[in-house]
Predict the structure.
Amino acid sequence: MTMSSGDLFLILPELLVVAAACAVLAIEPIMAPHQRDGLAWLSLGALAVCMGLTASQLGHPAEAFGGFVRIDDYACFWKLLLCLVSGLTVLLSYSYLKEERLRVGEYYAFVLLALSGMMVMVSAADLLTIYLGTELMSLSLYVMAGLKRMEPRSLEASAKYFVLGAFSSGILLFGVSLLYGATGSTRLPAIAAAVAGHSLDAPLPLVATILLAAGFGFKLAVVPFHMWTPDVYQGAPTSVTAFMAVASKAASFGAFLRVFVEGLGGLKTDWSFLFLLLCIATLVLGNSVALVQTNIKRMLAYSSIAHAGYAMIGVVASGRSPELAGHAIGAASVLLYLAFYAFMTFGAFAVVAMLRKGDVEGDEIEDFTGLAKRHPLAALLMLVFMVSLAGIPPTAGFIGKFYVFMSAVEAGLTWLAVIALVFAVVSAYYYLRVVMVMYMREPEALTATSPRLVLSPATSIVLACAIAGVVIFGLYPGPLVNLAVQAVQALH
Amino acid sequence: MTDPFPWLTVLIFLPLAGAAMLCLVKESAARSIALAITTVELAISAPLWWLFDSSSTAMQFTEQAVWISQPPIHYHVGLDGISLPLVLMTTVLLPLCVLISWHSIEARVKSFMALLLVMEGAMIGVFAALDFVLFYIFWEAMLIPMYLLIGMWGGPNRLYATVKFVLYTLAGSILLLVAILVLYAQAETFDILRLTDESYSSTLQMWLFLAFFAAFAVKVPMFPFHTWLPDAHVEAPTAGSVILASVLLKMGTYGFLRFSLPMLPDASKAFTPLMITLSIIAIIYGAYMALAQTDLKKLIAYSSVSHMGFVTLGLFTFNVQGIEGAVMQMVNHGITTGGLFLCVGIIYERTHSRLIADNVGLAKPMPRYATCLVIFALSSLGLPGTNSFVGEFLVLAGTFLTNKFAATLASLGIILAAAYLLWMVQRVAFGVPSPVFLPKLHDMTAREMATLIPLIALVFGIGVFPHPLVSRLHSSVNQVLARTLPQPPAALEAGHRHDDATPSEDPAALSEEVAFARRSRVASAPSSNGTEGVEPLRKEDRP
């Protein structure tokens, strides 16, 4: 394999992000503490250029490094989403870190490094490259989760995340090696060709599939690989939680879908059954346990588990449906679901991050009591995010569920759609409880420690982006749908 | 027929735009702006009544535009004779809702008025939508505004009532969504008119019917899915109760009429015994429950259960009288029950109690109020000369043609209605007022009169001269019947002769008939069956 300047040109967005991360690390020590805000603006600038470059690559599929990296519409779709979410993370962290008195310049470098890992994950067409991307993302996130060095819960989150994450990486790697043993390659097209020729009773590819599913299952936080999620989401700084819940899940779905549809498409009857089981377990457990949470970050953690279950329906449907059209709508529904999920979940976490109770974060659902009276606009935004998460129209959350369920029904899985919808009703109960607390409970008398919202211009931009995504895609999803359908055409 | 003026788009989006505008104005201006917008809505919708071509079976005032291309989902709206009266009923009621909330809503007026306007847009959208996804979006979009209306301005037990309302409604609606998706998988379209023209296998129809039933029966509400209704009604502010009773409940029966009957004729036929049984139970059980109530709003809520039973009964008679009566009853119940809830709201503003025991002997201190209450109560019990008589009479006439036993039982409901309503009137109007409340009992103000007089005019207008309404219904109801029951009239007659108690026929024969009718649908003129039957009735209705 030879490397040419053309290859480097194709991965210019990734290179730019890495360069920005290095620049942040290099500049940070020589900057005066009060100037360190500039690091956020540097990161944002890099992300904006990166998005522009990625957008210009849409519609011009190319392979780099002899097929290890693929710059197709599928990769570009995910990269655009990931860059956007990273940008929102930087903006949210900008004031959140100040409120929490976490003045660490490396923070932005870690966001950018994690992003570069995610970008590699979604554009790699080789299992080892995907593994490298996954590790780059995870290592950055382990550090970010433990950023509140003085808080035991944050440290616990970091340690737990690291141990379980490392374990899952091991499983993933084991799966990769078994698959290499069975097929003689780590490249997805070669694996696909080998699997297609294989008789299905050979145990090695099946065991490898199960191990890969378990490895990705940890990253996606689907039941039964979800145990770390609530503790980590609760303990990590809220801006990091938002980043993890949205970006790392999106990137993992991106890699996961490519591996299974493109590389292991020949085994789709096997893995679609396996994911069907995971999907049902995730929907049932995620939604039921979310019901009893009193901490909003834990509630959103279980909600994010449940949403992985909904997105998984699209994966199952794409594996179940025999014809190409159904295949496309199944995979496209996953992309759409994650995109809509990104806006509403990030928005909800942004509101949580803004809520202060005295000197600490107000992260109990009770802290939202009477928010509608004190901060009508913020309460309205939270209302829309919750309604969207519950999948009630006219919001993006509904459109996402609509496509997922449509793909299920078209794949002949009507009963799965019914189960998922029953749990959507269950989810409405806990999402609307937040609305109820905000709108229908009278706030107690104001004291110094009573919860209040701290709104900075940066967080306002975050909220504006999130609400625009939820409302605009809820009312006019057409262009994004077309983009997603176009993106999954690249998966064959 | 495409009209150059986008009537329905304006009707749907003007209130939504108004709601957005309300966010920008001062709290004190919210009432006047909301009143202005709802009145403009009424003014815009009124010409539709005269522009409507009652001889046509086609959708009118249609507009169509692509909304999402994959899968093809359209913004497609239009009205026929069934949806037109319901849209007009909505636009008539909303200004009254604003007026009745003028002083009773003091806190967060802006939000309240904005939510009322959102509700108006969504409700008109439901009745006008001709794309199933669009319909579903409007249908579900009403949920959150209603949730907030009850939850933010409701009574002491509002949290329980709102949760129950939302969960019941959502649980029903999700199955509707699955049914819509299954229909799409079958027919590759979401267009309601094209879906109605398709034919589906009997098994599929059964499943779809059950899914539709879950959504619509909860909304109606049919026994035994009615338990959310009394709670929601009692806790809701007056305007919320009016919207809930007058418009939201109609969406369930509208759904049966627009989707279940014409799309799933075989299943509708097969489930008729169940539907008739549930309707009869609702009529009698609702009436008995109403007899036992001490709370005025609960009494009216249970009377709604009973009256909506007549609607579902009429729909499943499968003849022109029954279905026209059902649609009439939908409109009339909207007017009369709306009026009754407004009356309760007016007295609640004075005594802050909804208990019958607290509100007695109002005829002396509040003569105008008592007159209005009596008028609405008499209308509700179906006194000839008032609007409800026409609908209930047609429903019963239709039921007698198909099922004499059910008709007899349903008549019992009318007697019970007379009992609970007259008893209520007797206590509220003619008792001895309690000295505690007497000083507060000043008669109705001009504003309050203005909320009731339009409805009283409609009570007598429809009661005395129902022809304009019936004539607008006629073609559309025949159209539905032609799709639901496409056999020639002779077969219908034959069906009656050999069964009295149950209208269900031999399934094999039925499916043959249906198959025959499918083939001859194009040829069969929709007015061939039942028209003769209804003519004499209409003449009788006119005094």
